């Protein structure tokens, strides 16, 4: 069966996310997705939050026909790296990307480099990509700074034969599912989805609208300006 998933989604547990896990799930369902990967910056707090409240399962199976893949977007010393299918500690921020890849693999996860070539958004440079044991490459990021960054990512993934993903990089619920990845498998589980990526994917590619981009920028600016230093958001935005 064909499953539509957004592999790059942030909740308000990210420093720059604004929507609650509940709102993200509702938006993803409304967008016709079968699931998404929660990839907050340098934290897996949302994973714990959703498991505790029964919105996702620790064994990697869906809840009410909807699958949430645990993950994290680690700010490595070399740029951002999506680690999917595992939980990692926040202490990895600033570590070399190669080391983070190793730890993610040891934890049973896979590594996907998001928005490579987009140096404005901490994309990993090609010279570093060449050294990493990647399991996939995000070749379409709906919020990329310049469209040519996506084209270069697509070409690189083709040269290396890497599985390709597309993601919204949503930081608010309204952007979830704008871009997504289609995976074909009869194993509707975290392990099944990640394993099936090796057999190829299909991509739904659409950029954030001007309104969505402005909202993302405004929400992030307002949230960071109004948030006390060291405070953690605990209410729904």
Number of helices: 7
Query: What proportion of the residues is helical, as a percent range?
Result: 25-40%
Shape: globular
**Average pLDDT for all residues:** 91
Q: What is the end-to-end distance?
A: 35 Å
The CATH superfamily turns out to be Metal-dependent hydrolases
CA radius of gyration is 16 Å
> Major sheet: order of its strands?
7-6-5-4-3-2-1-8-9
Biggest sheet statistics:
9 strands, mixed
What is the name of the CATH topology?
Answer: TIM Barrel
Structural class: alpha/beta
Strand content: 15-25%
Give helix and strand order, one letter per element, not per position.
Answer: EHEHEEHEHEHEEHEH
Your description of this structure?
It is a single chain. The protein is α/β, with parallel strands linked by helices and 237 residues long. It has a single domain, classed as TIM Barrel (Alpha-Beta Barrel), CATH 3.20.20. The chain is 30% helix and 21% strand. It has helices at residues 21-30, 45-52, 97-106, 126-129, 147-160, 190-196, 210-226, and strands spanning 2-9, 35-38, 67-76, 79-84, 110-113, 136-141, 164-167, 180-184, 202-204. A 9-stranded mixed beta sheet has the order 7-6-5-4-3-2-1-8-9. Helix 5 (147-160) links the parallel strand 6 and strand 7 (164-167). The longest helix is centred in the last third of the chain and has 17 residues, at 210-226. It is globular. The model is unreliable at 226-237 (pLDDT under 50).
Topology:
Elements: E1 2-9, H1 21-30, E2 35-38, H2 45-52, E3 67-76, E4 79-84, H3 97-106, E5 110-113, H4 126-129, E6 136-141, H5 147-160, E7 164-167, E8 180-184, H6 190-196, E9 202-204, H7 210-226
């Amino acid at each position: 069966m064909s499953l539509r998933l957004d592999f790059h989604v942030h909740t308000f547990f990210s420093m720059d996310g604004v929507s609650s896990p509940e709102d993200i799930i509702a938006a993803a369902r409304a967008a016709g997705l079968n699931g998404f990967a929660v990839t907050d910056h340098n934290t897996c707090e949302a994973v714990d939050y959703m498991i505790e409240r029964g919105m996702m399962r620790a064994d990697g199976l869906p809840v009410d026909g909807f699958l949430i893949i645990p993950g994290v977007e680690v700010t490595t010393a070399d740029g951002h790296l999506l680690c999917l299918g595992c939980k990692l500690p926040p202490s990895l921020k600033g570590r070399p990307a190669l080391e983070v890849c190793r730890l993610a693999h040891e934890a049973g996860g896979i590594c996907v480099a998001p928005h490579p070539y987009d140096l404005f958004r901490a994309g990993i440079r090609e010279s570093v990509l060449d050294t990493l044991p990647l399991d996939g490459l995000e070749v379409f990021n709906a919020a990329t700074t310049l469209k040519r960054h996506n084209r270069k990512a697509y070409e690189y993934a083709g040269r290396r034969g890497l599985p390709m993903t597309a993601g919204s990089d949503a930081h608010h619920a309204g952007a979830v599912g704008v871009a997504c990845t289609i995976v074909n498998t009869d194993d509707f589980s975290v392990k099944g989805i990640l394993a099936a990526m090796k057999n190829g994917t299909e991509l739904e590619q659409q950029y954030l609208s001007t309104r969505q981009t402005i909202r993302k920028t405004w929400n992030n600016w307002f949230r960071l300006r109004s948030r006390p230093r060291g405070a953690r958001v605990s209410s729904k935005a």
